[in-house]
């Protein structure tokens, strides 16, 4: 692909697609990781003398309607504070916008535009007509073929990859294409079914696959144990057994359980550490036991490359967070190259304040998983096509 950093942006109208889809509580941004990761690109374009236009989606609003809850206003306010240049939110831009050098215009949520999701050609052409150079810097949305990610790249005079997108692709390639070994992948989260293609892909390239959370429960069950009330997927036991034949899979050898369910769990509730064959019908696994966490940490410490997606227990509650914490700390302390991605994973890294100790934190959720699965990311593919034609 052509990189933004290879182009002369002086005096150019530059339209940057970013993924500023941040979690909000009302109008309060609860994690600014994606905005912080996007700021250097805006600053760089400004420094180069570009007239900067930024666009992003936020949430999943209904097309053709303004929805105040999905407005980019809170994001614009955040960026205005972080950047030493005039920053404004622009709602009317499809029929032309006079961008000025040294200023940042942030276009209102692209998902308010009719035709965004179906990658409408007329809409894509309107977006493309706004700029001299289109920069895709939205790794988190690269798995979507939409007007602001794909169509616009097709019709813009020049289409290139921004530093964040290029950096994410390079970090993921380093971890997956020709990794230093051993490569250890940690996949947690609640269900095997939602991560099956990822587990499958990783079982072919990882030396060791460490599974945690509800995913581990299905493996515990596949080893012939009664998992009581735990979240698990009986119908995927054969898949779990198959994955264990493909590569070394590490799952819980001891577990933390509760009888009270974690949805209405209160902090005085009792937890117990048990062996997998001791779980009672009325018990539920909510975390690794200490031996399993220590074993996972040991394996991680010996790794040269580490890929992490998904927590190992219900880490939102302190008493159920030990497994995730031990794993996260082992990753942070490892000398190997580590890459982490996914909303819950980033929240866990945040909770234990380890962001500076992981080699690379991906801003992608779905896009991160699709890349790991080996899927083509359409927004990247179109940039490759454009580079070939150039
Ligand atoms: C994400 O949060 O994973 C991206 O911003 C994509 O959002 P979407 O799943 O609504 O397309």
Automatic annotation (TrEMBL):
One Pfam annotation, family name? PGK
Q: Where in the cell is it found?
A: Cytoplasm
- Which residues does the record give as (2R)-3-phosphoglycerate binding sites? 34, 111, 144
Pathway note: Carbohydrate degradation; glycolysis; pyruvate from D-glyceraldehyde 3-phosphate: step 2/5
Main localisation: cytoplasm
Q: Which UniProt keywords apply?
A: ATP-binding, Cytoplasm, Glycolysis, Kinase, Nucleotide-binding, Transferase
SUPFAM superfamilies (alphabetical): Phosphoglycerate kinase (SSF53748)
Any Gene Ontology biological process = glycolytic process
What Enzyme Commission number(s) does the record list for this chain? 2.7.2.3
The reaction(s) catalysed by this protein are: (2R)-3-phosphoglycerate + ATP = (2R)-3-phospho-glyceroyl phosphate + ADP
Task: Show the Gene3D superfamilies listed in the entry.
Answer: Phosphoglycerate kinase, N-terminal domain (3.40.50.1260)
- Enzyme class, first EC level, given as a word: transferase
Residues annotated as binding ATP: 195, 316, 342-345
List cellular component terms (GO). Answer: cytosol
What molecular functions are annotated in GO for this chain?
A: ADP binding; ATP binding; phosphoglycerate kinase activity
Q: Which InterPro entries match?
A: Phosphoglycerate_kinase, Phosphoglycerate_kinase_CS, Phosphoglycerate_kinase_N, Phosphoglycerate_kinase_sf
Carries keyword Nucleotide-binding? Answer: yes
The residues the record assigns to binding substrate are 19-21, 34, 57-60, 111, 144
Q: Cite the record's note on assembly.
A: Monomer.
**Which family does the entry's similarity section mention?**
Belongs to the phosphoglycerate kinase family.
What's the protein here called? Phosphoglycerate kinase
Q: Which organism is it from?
A: Saccharobesus litoralis
């Amino acid at each position: 692909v052509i990189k933004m950093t290879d182009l002369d942006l002086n005096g150019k109208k530059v339209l940057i697609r970013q993924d500023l889809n941040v979690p909000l509580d009302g109008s309060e941004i609860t994690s600014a990781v994606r905005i912080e990761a996007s700021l250097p690109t805006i600053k760089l374009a400004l420094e180069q003398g570009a007239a900067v236009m930024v666009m992003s989606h936020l949430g999943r609003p209904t097309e053709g309607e303004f929805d105040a809850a999905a407005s980019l206003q809170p994001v614009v306010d955040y960026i205005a504070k972080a950047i030493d240049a005039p920053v404004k939110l622009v709602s009317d831009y499809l029929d032309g916008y006079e961008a000025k050098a040294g200023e940042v215009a942030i276009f209102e949520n692209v998902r308010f535009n009719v035709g965004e999701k179906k990658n409408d050609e007329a809409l894509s052409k309107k977006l493309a007509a706004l700029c001299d150079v289109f920069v895709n810097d939205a790794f988190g949305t690269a798995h979507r073929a939409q007007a602001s990610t794909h169509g616009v790249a097709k019709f813009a005079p020049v289409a290139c990859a921004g530093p964040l997108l290029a950096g994410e692709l390079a970090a993921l390639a380093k971890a997956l294409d020709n990794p230093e070994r051993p490569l250890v992948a940690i996949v947690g989260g609640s269900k095997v079914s939602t991560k099956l293609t990822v587990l499958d892909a990783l079982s072919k390239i990882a030396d060791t696959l460490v599974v945690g959370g509800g995913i581990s429960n299905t493996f515990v069950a596949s080893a012939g144990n009664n998992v009581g009330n735990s979240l698990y997927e009986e119908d995927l036991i054969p898949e779990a057994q198959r994955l264990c034949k493909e590569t070394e899979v590490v799952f819980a050898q001891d577990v933390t359980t509760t009888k009270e369910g974690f949805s209405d769990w209160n902090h005085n509730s009792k937890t117990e550490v048990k062996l997998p064959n001791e779980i009672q019908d009325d018990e539920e696994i909510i975390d690794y036991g200490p031996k399993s966490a220590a074993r996972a940490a040991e394996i991680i410490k010996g790794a040269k490359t580490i890929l992490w997606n998904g927590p190992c227990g219900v880490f939102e509650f302190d008493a159920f967070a030990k497994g995730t914490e031990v794993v996260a700390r082992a990753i942070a302390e490892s000398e190997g190259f580590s890459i982490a991605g996914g909303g819950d994973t980033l929240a866990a890294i945040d909770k234990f304040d380890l962001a500076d100790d992981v080699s690379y934190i991906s801003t992608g959720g779905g896009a991160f998983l699709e890349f790991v699965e080996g899927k083509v990311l359409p927004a990247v593919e179109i940039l490759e096509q454009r580079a070939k034609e150039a």
